[in-house]
Request: fold
Amino acid sequence: MTDSAMSHLATSSGVIWALDDPGLIDAVEACLAKSACFVMPTDTVYGLAAAASDQRGVDRLQTIKGRDDHFPPPVLLSSIDQAWPLIDKPSPYLATLARAGWPGAMTLIVNSRRVGMSLIERVGTVGLRVPDRPAVQQLLAQTGPLAVSSANRHGLPAATTVEMAAGQLADDVELLIDGGPSGDGIASTVVDCTGNRPKVLRVGQWTQDQINDLVGVADA
Reply:
């Protein structure tokens, strides 16, 4: 369903757009203006997205996922340059991990700077990632940072196609973006970068040993 001629297929609630449709950005911006959520492809799994700067949208995302502020969604960025204004007191190894893992399936949890985003300021930390998919990076460059959680109901498998995402979330989103099958379906590695040494909280494509090797630390 990636042909733009098929990009406006209506579901029971949302509308499916092709990732390469020239009218997509206008549709996404209209969605975000209403504090609504949408489904988007990434380089790992499909994601449920809201504007990171819009607390109403983020609250809606959390409600759909059945989560609270103790489990804030990570923020997807278009480039490494978009990350630095959001980070407070970066650890000495952070830039090394960012250069090695971005773009790609590595989410870095960092101390957050007060930048007018309630998502970031409520918890004091934020998970950041730059997806390894140029078309998605281009979308993020136009929308700004997006809060993105996996496109599934809490406790159910993450969607790897737009059809899987629609089956779970179509009634709760404004639109869905079809980018074809996602990557390998493995969620990103989550690394806590707020301490003296990086700590892997969720293993994906990267292991703790590989992270340690990157930053030059020995096993604890």
Remarks:
- The first strand starts at residue 9 and ends at 10.
- Residues 1-7 have pLDDT under 50 and may be disordered.
- The two ends are 48 Å apart (CA to CA).
